[in-house]
Write a structure and sequence with these properties.
alpha+beta
Amino acid sequence: MHLWPFWKFLRWQDLLDISIVSYLFYRLLLLIRGTRAVQMVAGLAVIVVMYFVAEHLQLLTLHWLLGTFMSSIFLVVVIIFQEDIRRALMHMGRSPFVKVQTEYSQVIEEVVKAVATMAEKKIGALIVFERETGLNEFVESGTPLEARVSRDLLLSIFHPFSPLHDGAVIIRENKVVAAGVILPLSTNPMVGRGLGTRHRAAIGITEVTDAVSVVVSEETGAVSLAVGGKITREISPATLRRMLSELLGFHSVEPWWRRKIFK
């Protein structure tokens, strides 16, 4: 009964407005989750709280200093989060329903070819695909590349004599953004004890982010894929291609009868 006056004056435009703002905040949280931006947001929140506390307690000097800082808060946010804002605008400009199939298929195909070669030669490798959650926090631990994904590039990175072969490669969109990246190891006690450090890192990054990781065993040459903290082991190149296509949002455009016959 007490809420009736409130709902009486609530328009459908207000509901739409609230829904849009909530969705934007949700997408923003997904974008910065797992990055240093979370710590920066927490720091800015502390400053805002201190500003109101100083005003309430009549701490004039502190209140004036924080007020001066907050008067240019918009410019500060743009400078601090310029990389995250750039990526957010790129995500907003990209259609949520249609993806460039040729670009995704080419990246997947190059990765599958490289993985098949490394599996045959028993070359250890760890390849991570960034999805919605930013991986800048981990990219900074490696060597920046910003190179287009190719079979030859991946083979050269994971060559046993390469200085970057022990770390992971992170792929963002259609580029290798960093190599030699250090990833967190899985802390799940249910993970098989027979898995080595490379496999635990492959699982670990998918436990704290929504990334997809592909790992090649140096001992057996077996190919595995990890997502959501779970790993699928000993998969074929064809299965790897299909799983990556589904997880990265690219769906095969083959006729249904062809997929049925050659399944």
